[in-house]
Amino acid sequence: MTTPVPENAAAARDTVMRLLTSQFGGLVGEGPAADVVVADALLITSELVTNAVRHGGGITGFAAELTDGGLRLAVADASPDLPVSCDADDETSGVGRIGGYGWALVRRLAKQVSVTVHPGGKNIVVLISLT
Question: How far apart are CA 43 and CA 109, in angstroms?
Fold first, then answer.
């Protein structure tokens, strides 16, 4: 389901939360395990949208839908540059480093992650397990 492009991460989280509560209401508020799943979905949403704004030249597309496999999020931006992670062995990491950890979190928390580069930028699609 394509949804309006959110202006920021908060708007994207609101969209995902509405989707989870309206179409899959049994997950939200159903105990600690379900709360972690919702928190993970909202964290991934924030990371993808924030990175699109900060590093990708802006959000050019956004979709959130529930599938048999979980929550599928797609975030498109205007940059063909691939996401990068902070490497613990990198000389720029360490005390005082700000940023660079979100992509690693997305890859760790999502069940599936794909990045497709196209002439106008890229599309990142993740599948988040809801169980």
Answer: 9
Read off the pLDDT of residues 39-66 as tens digits, 9 standing for 90 and up: 999 999 999 999 999 999 999 999 999 9
CB 83 within 8 A of CB 34: no
Task: Report how far apart, in Å, the C-alpha atoms of 19 and of each of 3, 44, 76, 93, 131 are.
Answer: 11, 15, 19, 37, 16
Going through 1-131 in order, the beta strands assigned E by DSSP cover 59-67, 70-77, 112-118, 121-128
The interaxial angle of helices 32-55 and 102-109, nearest 10 deg, is 140
> How many Cβ atoms sit within 10 Å of the Cβ of residue 80?
13
d(CA 45, CA 86): 19
pLDDT tens-digit series, residues 73-86: 999 999 999 998 76
The closest of 55, 41, 18 to 129, measured between CA atoms, is: 41
pLDDT score recorded for residue 26: 56
Tell me the pTM.
0.84
